[in-house]
Amino acid sequence: MAYFVVAPMMVLLIIATMSVTSIQIFGQQGSFSAPQNIDATYAVSIVPGAAQKENTYHYYPQDIAVPTGTDVAWFNNDFGQPHTVTSGKPGAPDEGSVFNSGVMPATASSFFQFTFTKPGEYLYHCNIHPWRVASVTASNAFFTGNGFKIDIGSGATWNITDHPRVLLDIEPQTIPLDRSSPIGYNVTISEGQNNKTLISRLLTTPGDSLPLELISSQDNQTILYGPDFSSDGAYHIQSNFKKGSSYPINIEIVSINGKPVENPISVLFPFKTS
Asked: Domains along the chain?
């Protein structure tokens, strides 16, 4: 297996107790499981109260790191208030030149989506409420091994200081991805220094690659939530990921279209932090 890195830039609450750790599963803060059939990977919420300057967030998550090719969808959850998603800094000569939602109505079905095809850091803001700037960083770094390609939003090494959140896109190379035959991925993440299992869960996609975001937190609990949409989109794992450590991720395809795989396909991704 080898790394290939090209210009890295860059509420129902269920508590599941496992022998290795404590895991919570719940809806994403500031977002929601969208009922719409939206062909996107990652959901960002314009949160309730975003029109107020004193609100902690305008967009949530505020800063994300994703692989190139990721389709991000923004939802206006600040009901009663119109907003925009406009690239660049407020008032900059190039504002809106990369993407611009126009005015998003203050309705439950209001959303805007954009695919980040090129690596780089993309700042954006709301033209109506321009006091807070958010960002998307896109990277075209990837890892290959044993029939898998893993695109990495942070570059080959996860710099937690620069990007507390990083999206991985786990794509099998030896089975068809027809978006009609659900795929069951068993994902196990360990803390390399003491060989402690942080989480081991079965995650399902509708016949597609597995988008999985890792979130560094000071909380010692490991939390799993997602997917972002009703049956598709990114899953999220939040844990006390530390700088200068290794977090081996074992991915195994255990079922296709509801049927167990006779010879499961697996790969070990030796992800490191800095």
From this structure: 2-273 (2.60.40.420)
